[in-house]
Design a protein that fits this description.
541 residues, mainly alpha, 72% helix
Amino acid sequence: MTDFTINQTGNGGLIEPASRPNLDKGFNPLTMILFFGILAAGALFVAYSIYVDVQATGTRVTSYLPYLLLFVALLIALGFEFVNGFHDTANAVATVIYTHSLPAEFAVMWSGFFNFLGVLFSSGAVAFGIVSLLPVELILQVGSAAGFAMVFALLIAAIIWNLATWYFGLPASSSHTLIGSIIGVGVANALMRGRDGTSGVDWGKATEIGYALLLSPLVGFVCAAGLLLLLKMIVRNPALYAAPEGNKTPPIWIRGLLILTCTGVSFAHGSNDGQKGMGLIMLVLIGTVPTAYALNRALPESQVQQFQTNSIAAAKVVAAKGAGHSIIGDPRPAVTQYVSQHKIVEGTYPSLAVLVTDVGNQVRTYGTLDKVPAESVGNTRNDMYLASEAIRFLMKDKENDLSKDDVAVLNTYKGSLDAATKFIPTWVKIAVAIALGLGTMIGWKRIVVTVGEKIGKSHLTYAQGASAELVAAVTIGAADVFGLPVSTTHVLSSGVAGTMAANGSGLQMATIRNMLAAWVLTLPAAIILSGSLYVVFSKLF
């Protein structure tokens, strides 16, 4: 496909047709040397970081089996981010390539670098939003065979579906795929335990994320179309709404705007999508090397002291709700049951009050988190996580009968629990950033062609590219702030479609149908794939 259309000038004269950008130019050998050099340096950095963290705990290594499992799990988790990188590169670079703002090979390297930076400066909120979807009983035993079966199943299922849609050039959503994989594991785990399949997933959180995934393409379509129409009203420069002439680069101010929006989408994609692998990598680290990663050993002593104050206040609030009831024995089964089933029963409040008190006593005994003995780290972390999840559900439960003051106290306490258990070491961010950044440099062409050529019936104009990219960057950045995993692919591709519709350019309905089919099939396909793999891995491990 060499040309898209014969464009016309304002006075009716013909201009040179917009030409297809050169997408077949290979990378310079020096670029590939740099690529593999960064890959090797990243692997050594990860290995060294784990070694340093384990040494800092004073733990003596007696078996290398956990580290072998850790290596395989990290390889798969970083592989997911790598595939995510080249699957989603088109979201950022298609518009600058098809408007001749940047050469293709430079655009993907530029995008990769800003994906890298986006991961490094991400908040971490999305990472733990993803983890909270997983069944609590699997998170509490993440170091067991069932825990590894869970991580391997959902990551491998997500990689398989991402590769399949990439092969056919379909801009499907990596976020959508990963959510489906998590749901599949949760449903399969519940069914294998003889429970209703719907009890294996936090459907409240899944619904919240589902709305974000569902609405983001609509936001992309409507807002990009609206922004293009607004630009036409405000900015009268005809060059902005014309397709490129031949291989000419756009005017400098338009080129700067397009590069800026490409940069914004790349950074936003890194900050949102990079976090999905982070949360799963932390689960792997907690399961294999709990002494180093189960608790945030870098938490300042002042925060640990504040934790104890918050713990006492929270225990009083919960105990007051359970006044008149008492429990005998271990409170954890009752709290776990509440987190799994979200139903307040007679033993919920007294059991949670005992658990909160126990957690406070453990921290008080050790003084600081870095002094928790190796044999107790896993249990302390599980107690903290269980208490945090129980309080999260309790505050959302309509039957909780909590006052505003009670909610404020519990929120503060939950913040202390999360600071101790939900943290991401800097080296994890760097490893994910490298995987995602390098992934953007590989295999990008298939989906770039779909976004650039096969959505609309005419060549992408400067204003269309800028409108779609700007809406995508803002939408994804806002989702990162609110801890919601949205689909960069859906937002950008639907934004391009929206600008084509608003411009009267027409849509290629075959491509739109394929995109809708991928959007509809992604969730059930990922659920079936991950659920099946979880059953197989559960029997193998």
